[in-house]
Design a protein that fits this description.
five-stranded mixed β-sheet, three-stranded antiparallel β-sheet, 5 helices
């Protein structure tokens, strides 16, 4: 499967749009009108480290979560939610550290069907899915140790 993102980079007072394609082996390919790939790739890689968790939508949920060969940690969140903003860096930190777990985020305002499916009434709401089935679900802000415990670590 091939996924793709649009990535905007400000370069020399102009905004350049780069198209980022990733295949199933997580190899990254870039396309840009101005062909400044090395600089865009460096900026993109730095951005991916900061935004390590994969942002899931209703369209990508089945392929990225239900069909995943790894356990999946999902953070249901919203931009207006203060506790979610506190939880975010912890989630990104875990995403950077664990290679055997897929870490994802679902914006409940943009994906209400997913929130409804998992009965998300309060956020942040953390869900662990293994082999396509719900394993654990907890509400509220958790420290790193608590999230790792949810993952069986």
């Amino acid at each position: 499967m091939l996924t793709f993102e649009i990535f905007h980079v400000t370069m020399q007072s102009s905004i350049e749009t780069a198209y980022v394609f990733r295949n199933t082996n997580d190899q990254t390919y870039l396309w840009s009108r101005f062909k400044r790939f090395a600089k865009i790739k460096r900026i993109y890689d730095e951005w991916r480290k900061i935004m390590a968790a994969l942002h899931i939508t209703t369209d990508t949920f089945e392929s990225e979560v239900l069909n995943s060969d790894k356990p999946v940690l999902i953070d249901f969140w919203a931009t207006w939610c203060g506790p979610c903003q506190m939880q975010g860096p912890i989630i990104d930190d875990i995403a950077n550290e664990l290679s055997d777990v897929k870490v994802c985020k679902v914006n409940v305002d943009e994906n209400p069907d997913l929130a409804k499916k998992y009965r998300v009434m309060s956020i942040p709401n953390l869900v662990v899915i293994e082999n396509g089935a719900l394993k654990t679900q907890e509400v509220g802000v958790h420290d790193k140790k608590g999230i790792l415990k949810m993952l069986g670590r």
